[in-house]
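Input sequence (397 aa), recorded before submission:
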Amino acid sequence: MITLGAGSLDFRNIRRDNSFLVRASMNPALPRPLRIDRAFLSHAPHPESIPDGFQLYIFVGESGSGLSELVGSSPAVVLPSSFNYLGEADVLRISPHRRAVRTLYRNSVRFNAILLTEQCNSYCLMCSQPPKITDDSWIIDETLRLLPLIDPSATELCFSGGEPTLLGSGLISILKSAESWLPNTSVHVLSNGRRFSDLDFALEYASIGHHDIMVGIPLYSDLSTHHDFVVQADGAFDETIRGILNLKRAKARVELRVVVHKQTYSRLFQLAEFITRNLLFVDHVALMGLELTGFTKANLEQLWIDPYNYQHELEAAVAHLARHRMNVSIYNHQLCVLRPSLWEFAKQSISDWKNEYMPECHSCSVRARCGGFFTSGLSKPSEHIHALADSQLLSRS
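Predicted structure, token format:
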């Protein structure tokens, strides 16, 4: 999500000392009682008039001429055209004291991820959100203020980190609030699973009784030393396995996530065997392509392998999991790189706000069902990316 500040923005008639959250509305006919805590959002280059009674007025791309007369003494923010994506029911953090604006939730986007902390007890080689040693407990309060502002029609929310379970009771409060304010919204919690090795915490999490929640937990090898090396934490494998067992004992839903790279691809089949022998009861297994951001950039030599070159291992692992009737998916891969036998498992998993395609993709017959690339992945794509013609699809079938 974009954050801009200082010279990029124009604040008018705002004298707050602290940040505040506000939900945007583009409806000039919004009932007056609802305007009190909403921001009126306008993309018009030169609006002739604005409805009164809103908490804040947000103008995107407004040049500024005549704006003073338009808003009078009402609080207003002028944003650059890079905020053109803003729309109805989006939620923003306004920070007048820092002269900054950040988008916290986009209503038009299917996948919204909310960062709960930058702290973590692992140090994964390919972490896309490198951990920081900092007190960011203020995010708990902000998230509790954010949830009531999110449109109840939201289909899915993801809570990520860092490691969200380090928040302890703070995470429990957030998940309870999500169930209360968003009773129709599914929740995905991304966790390394280690904190759930404490059975009491696993039971407390399960007792929330959320109507649709799943924990996504990474497992990188069938060998404890191998997994611990990838996450750079001794004893992590044992804690993760105990955490998974405790969650399933508490009847919680669990997804296993395996990021495939140079350190993990060679034992994919052995990991699949380990899962079917010991963790057959998990709810989903996701085999994921590498995201070229965060620590991955620094460790690229240790991590990068062209996805085309591990198709044998990927196909064997997927086939084994599928034979055992496990729910298995492939994330973050392009169809032209995958073997045809894997297409039915490939999902469009990349969040649309960071999903891109290469020029070669424009004429591809299957672009509409292809997962595409992370924006960061365009810097080092597979050497085998190419458009697929209809004739090639027939030969692959």
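Checked by second reader. The chain has two domains: 3-105, 112-342.
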